[in-house]
Specification:
The structure is a homodimer. Helices cover about 30% and strands about 30% of the residues of chain A. Chain A is of the alpha+beta class. In chain A, a hairpin with a 5-residue loop joins strand 22 and strand 23. The longest helix of chain A has 21 residues, at about 165-185.
Amino acid sequence: MRLTKFYIPALKEAPADAEIASHKLMIRAGFIRKLAAGVYSLLPAGVKVIRKIEAVIREEMNRAGALEVYLPSVQPASLWEESGRWEVYGKELLRITDRHNREFCYGPTHEEVITDLVRRDVRSYRDLPLNLYQIQTKFRDEIRPRFGVMRAREFSMKDAYSFDADEEGAKENYEAMRKAYTAIFSRLGLKFRAVEADTGQIGGSASHEFMVLAETGEDRIAHCDKCGYAANVEKVELSDIAVSGDENVQDLQSVDTPNAKTIEEVSEFLDMDSSRFIKTLIYKADGNIIAVLIRGDYEVNETKLLRAIDSGEVALASEEEVESVGTMVGFAGPVGLENVRIIADSSVKSIVNGVTGANRVDTHFFNVNPGKDFTPGLYADIREAVPGDPCPRCDDGKLSLARGIEVGHIFQLGVKYSEAMKANFLNREGKERPMIMGCYGIGVGRTGAASIEQNHDDNGIIWPPSIAPFDVVVLPLSLKDEEVVRVAESIYEELKNGGFDPALDDRNLRPGVKFNESDLVGYPLQVVVGRKGLADGVVEVKIRKTGERMTVAPEGAFHKIKETLEKLSSID
Amino acid sequence: MRLTKFYIPALKEAPADAEIASHKLMIRAGFIRKLAAGVYSLLPAGVKVIRKIEAVIREEMNRAGALEVYLPSVQPASLWEESGRWEVYGKELLRITDRHNREFCYGPTHEEVITDLVRRDVRSYRDLPLNLYQIQTKFRDEIRPRFGVMRAREFSMKDAYSFDADEEGAKENYEAMRKAYTAIFSRLGLKFRAVEADTGQIGGSASHEFMVLAETGEDRIAHCDKCGYAANVEKVELSDIAVSGDENVQDLQSVDTPNAKTIEEVSEFLDMDSSRFIKTLIYKADGNIIAVLIRGDYEVNETKLLRAIDSGEVALASEEEVESVGTMVGFAGPVGLENVRIIADSSVKSIVNGVTGANRVDTHFFNVNPGKDFTPGLYADIREAVPGDPCPRCDDGKLSLARGIEVGHIFQLGVKYSEAMKANFLNREGKERPMIMGCYGIGVGRTGAASIEQNHDDNGIIWPPSIAPFDVVVLPLSLKDEEVVRVAESIYEELKNGGFDPALDDRNLRPGVKFNESDLVGYPLQVVVGRKGLADGVVEVKIRKTGERMTVAPEGAFHKIKETLEKLSSID
């Protein structure tokens, strides 16, 4: 492609709302433009990258036996009412009313639609298994869309849904998808990890997320470097660690703690380690006030909490709500707290002679002992992991924490949707059974952005060859020099005819501008054709990733480029 | 693809709402399923057809120098307010309110979004021309969606938008698109005609529609078989034909016409040809009552009327509205009709001593003469063409009428959007000018449906090889016969390895069912492998289109299939 015929407008400055590298660079290098909050247009270079990602996804999905369908984006409310999600999905679901006042939504996901589709035509175990996928546009009305296409409201997703006659088949489908996802993200040149994950609003019994490792990732993962166990911190299993040794249980004692409200203040005031504290947080969960206890040096993970209490929504209670149950912010504690459900993290169980608020101003309790002075309605693992937590899978492994970008997510759904929506089939014995489902998503644009998070420097993007918009850019440094133009054109044509997708920067711009934009756009290779080099009988081939420059005679350029691209591809 | 691993559920009966062949057959053969009124899911075979159509479109668009982009489906109201279409677009525009109460719509077309995109980055004539296209999902909230994907509410469209610095460039882009469209529809094996068309809600100065000729088409076109002129009946230019010879103008005369209201009744009662009548229709146009006159034997074309009076909406007035302007249904006439704008078709001008209603019960006027007894505010060409109308382009050509399905539409937009939205550039002289635009659409799903309208018989679809879901189906008639299975598998593998996309019907079904479904799905070729044939050393190759059957030795099957497919492709 001649850049004079292409449309790849570069910008000097990134927009003010761009916080992370991929967002800044995709805008600056002319891959995307913002239309509205969380809604982006893809420019031609952006489309080329996305098409390459899609092609890899399609190949691996087809190889795994999945069949491509294409489902509507506008979905009738009635199906969401059948699954029960019309009520619970909340404001992220973009609801639409048509001209006849019928209710619809812009699909954020397609479990309902696909289940409806399959239940109409599938009758027998003979029609199963089935794995249907699509690459399609979704809308989730995020309250705070950000990071460009990374957390957009309108976005492209590959979503697949499997239907099986038995658990065994469902697990096979799940494993096939896990393998396909590993192949996809490997081919796309990403460093990633598959981690155990929470199933969230999609539901189901088990799931794995595919996390691209990056500092700017919104997700946090815990992983054991000894046995390979890895999980989202929302899902990681943490064991309790006894902290108080073999101390004797003593009697509850009230103590004045004037002007000390936070754990840090009280801990300093009493000269006691914060691990002795039973931190008491008042939450509102689905409209009910609850008390949540956790060891003073730990934090609550709200997703774990949600799952533990099987709730749809939790948030810290307001000051008024806290007071409505007879306690107060800064001095809340479980002792004597009545008519409030108490949920405690497992870490609380082993505390002996702990400290808590006394539900009175400037007062705490000493020698608080679970089971004696209060009894939680539920103990559960609801805490945030910390580095060094013991691995739940192997003997003496310790967990490390890292940040990741979720690019894929696979779920074992079980019969959640098929039961609710009566997607049944006749089994071998002629009995009606709900189909066993799985669902499998990949964020297409997010995958491209994640690649940039892993592959960029101060000058711009460094695309892996597998998804670069062009394999190489040929840079004639002077359009006035006939020989420069002739050689550049000839290398460009040779590359085109040789099966590559090259760009030719035939724009009338200064060499410095061409170099900067080439680095910014992130072509894996640059071929520099200048008067000076030609006088020495050479052109220069620069590897964007390493900065390495090689000189080669114009006749040898094609071969050198081919060889270098192959090497780069095999590394990635 | 082995059909046991594919998902192509056939149905015996078409749904009750399916009126035309393509709708019935796409459902019955397992290409699409309905999700809601005008909203369809594509099953795997449907996706395969659509991908092939898209590939042809992309190739020809790229060849013509257009660049692929991908624009959001959710568009902010503010842009539509800038263009002025937020108010005028009506209920077909699916309006959406997001969680922050901001207004959006589901894009029915993308002039606003693309104009906004281009105005941000294009500064100079040096950045022009530009032609950007996408293949993307649109939503138009049709009041009566029907005919399956032919007139769906959610549908896939290829839309392109060109931007030029001058009229000449804009015309070049338009011509390039006309050429590209001709190439696309030819390659897709369609019989079509490019016709002059009305510009409708999109606006602009000129346009052509690409019409696939089919009896079930919703559009009507008029074409001259002598000079090749062709136009939508909404756009066709009709000349007036004098009917009354050289009769002398006589004086207006009232006549009683008891019980005669319709043109036919009055014409019979008075024994006068209906071409002598000045038919008077009372319309409501954008809220105002108007009178529309036309020769008694002609009909009004409302799109032409809309354009003539530059109105957004017209409909026949209600009985009450008719009476509110001092006339009545059945006896309306222009003589003495006051305070009402009168628009007359050009055919009225040459009527001498005509007949009209007298705005009184059971009364008509004789000897009515335009210019003398009444004067229309406007004469315009607002009538429906009739077969035999003279061609407006050549000397003695006559127009014929045909039905067509609009699969493509190209528009010269001029500066309609760029002026309203200030999409300006600096020209060679450094002056700011609005860009000159064109826009170009193809209905992707509709093109597939139109192909079926042209290519089917009582047994099912007859796909042209260029867009068939599979090139050929191999039919082993007995799965119990090892030799049948072996030969079928071997031909299937040979086809796969030889660059074809074959299907193998390895389902355990009776031969009759396999034959019927193969005809229904419309594979261009069927390869029948049966015990009886093999005993004679042959398999059978059937051409779906002609029904022709050829026998060939199994070893020769690949070559015969290849040759036959090539022949079929070149015919289409």
